[in-house]
Design goal:
By secondary structure, the chain is of the alpha/beta class. The chain is 48% helix and 11% strand. Helix 2 runs parallel beside helix 3 (97-104) and helix 10 runs antiparallel to helix 11. The termini are far apart.
Length: 411
Amino acid sequence: MEIHDKYDLSFFDVTGNCNLRCPFCINDWSTISGNTHVNERTLENVLKLLPLLNSFYLSCYFEPTIHPDFESIIKAIPVEHSKKVLFTTNLSRKLTDGVIEALSNSGFNYINVSLDSLNPEVFEKMRKGARFDVFYDNLRRLTEAFSVNHGAPPLRYITMLNRHNIDEIPELIENCASNYLSTMNELRTIVPMAHIDKGWIKENDITDERRAALWERLFNFPHKWMFVDYGKRTEYDEFFDSLEDPGEKMIYFVPPFIGLRISSEGIAQLSHMGIESRYDINKMDDPYGVFKEILALHSLDVERARELKKNHEEKLKIIEEKNEIITDKNTAISIRDTSIANLTIEREALTNDKYNLAAEMATIKATYFYMLSQNDTKGIWRSFRHSVGKLLFKNNSALKSSIKKFLHLGK
């Protein structure tokens, strides 16, 4: 049995809100109010989990840079775990020089920057509440600091594709690579969530044709880029859909990853479980020990799910093979029945021909004997030739000559 000794990833929000209200945001802001900044005690307990984590997102649903002491949070990450850390920022809140310096020396795995356009009008239309001049000043100062520090984290850029920026994408990728230290540009589609205004999606979404034209332009592009299509459903979507209603969960679903989501209040949830699971890290004396035990228990859950899934797939395969056999047999039966039906029709037609021919022969025979009794050989020949004669003589001239000779007839 495979034993999981680490969580694949964790999402830890150091704040409980955002400075922007982007129209495509996955957050339903009608259900979110207020803000809780993570405190020192909670942060300390969360950081105790780092040895159990393969990857540590310093932000997930909210903007981390709005925390009033974000610089201290960056510096609190132990050096031996810094390579596990990554986060995403909209870079739209003015950063202090101290935050920029801390980020430059953080040793993080990488930093994502949300950037939809370098056109101020398009940028502010997409990032509602942002000011392009503030964003650009942060970007300029950040990349200048990173460019003189060879140990600075790699920068990546995330762009939401829409009708207003799609023609700008090649130039944007080129610009990011040449001027803003980009190591990767991630292009994303709009996530069609229920709370997002359908009219806005219709106005901003791109057609398949325009997307295909963009891919053709980018195909041999020298800079790194990737595409994430949130419009297509995957096994991940099916898994997380099953978590919405645990009663509908297929027990053989194997979680796509083992993860934690931790709020700025210190409430941890197991993102891979189909049950209500909320743990208050603030009330734990030994958060590392607690979540290590949960991880061990989860290993059993995953292995059992894999076993059930394997058995289920084997049963499906057997059912599919049996269905193929049944289909083949039904096809063979159908072909046989069709052949029988055709032969029956042919037999009935031949039987009718036989009866008709017998009736014609009886009439010819009666006529022949009548004319023979009258010594009317020429009449016999005429009747014979115009009735059955056409069939008999068609390919048998010898028979025709023989009968004419028998009836003593000339040419």
